[in-house]
Amino acid sequence: MKIIAMKSMEIEQINDLVMLARQGDKEAFVQLIQENKISLYRVAKGILQNEADVEDVIQITILKAYEHIRKLKVSEYFKTWITRILINECTTVLRGRKRVVSMESNVNDLATIEDTYTNVNLYHVVHSLREKLRIVTILFYYEDLSTKEIANLLALPEGTVRSRLSKARLQLQKKLNKEEKVGE
Prior knowledge:
Elements: H1 2-22, H2 26-48, H3 51-68, H4 78-100, H5 104-107, H6 120-127, H7 131-142, H8 147-154, H9 158-183
């Protein structure tokens, strides 16, 4: 019962911060960013992998969120809203990258990425998924978003999200089993 009361208190505090930020309170906006910075980092890192790109995208996301916070209609959706901005910025970076270098040449560079995850194999296997599957996997497993929240965030039908998660699970299982056999 205490956990439920704490959660509702946290939601109220976040709603209050969003209301203040929408009214121009810079400190409230900074607090909202502090509350969500780890989540934003994980999503950006999961999509882009390149640390410099991740930092740039997060900065652009924060700037755009600050400029457009007044347009946020429902305070409870702040995290979803700012994550959507982040994903859009990540997509822009990926599109720019594809014009310069093919993504396949970057797959070999994955081994050089500094990694703080405890299960490095899983990290690399998740990041070897196609972008569409990787994004839903990261949002579902790393950010604990429901399929409905992911569907709203990505503007997709919920069935599409479930289908992509299912495909991702199958590919992850195959790749992990393949790596396990190679390691034996």
